[in-house]
Specification:
It is built from no helices and 9 strands. The model has no long low-confidence stretch (mean pLDDT about 95). The chain has about 80 residues and is mostly beta strands.
Length: about 80
Amino acid sequence: MELTLVILRPFSEEKKAIDWVSLECPGGSFVVGPGHRPLVNMLSGSGVVTYKVGGLEDTIEVPEQGGLVHVVGNQVILFLN
């Protein structure tokens, strides 16, 4: 089972099939894998989102003003400016 990472920005949308994602939130960092419970949380400003796909890790920088994450089903949706 895999996850879909959806990255939404004001003028773009990107989708990637991933194995897991690590998120930095104001309350701490955590990892989301397949079958994770639904959640909505804030992303720490100037933080990093790390994800793994095909044995390789990659990162996405979170803007200074932060963002939101919504996990539903096997989708991790990032709302970034």
